[in-house]
Write a structure and sequence with these properties.
single chain; 127 residues; mainly beta; Immunoglobulin-like; four-stranded mixed sheet; four-stranded antiparallel sheet; 8 strands; 12% helix; 36% strand; elongated; disordered N terminus
Length: 127
Amino acid sequence: MNTVEKINNLQDWERLIETEPLVKPVIDIIENDDDFIVKVYMPGVSKENIFLKLEDNVLTIFGKVDLNHVEDERFLLREKSYGHYFRQLNLSDKIDTTRIEAKLENGLLSIILPKHESIKPKVISIN
């Protein structure tokens, strides 16, 4: 996934949010000179089942999980919460929302939120 955009089946995953169990994924947010990086931990979710939506500076993250196997199991011990991943983040005005990118690798979704050029630190040379 190269850019954040509204998806065609938006109604499908919004219905899941209303009717299925949800889990808040663990995130890390890192800042460097050029951007913020949001790392979202969503093990077991393929990129086809991750939906990102940006609206009114709110980034919505949703990961659809196959819950069928959970219903069939007889757990002796169950420590993990099961449900679809859902998280919303309010984005700062410092972010250039036209250049947001996302990639998924080994259950870790990295969302790169580039800073506007005008707020990046500038090195001033002395003559």
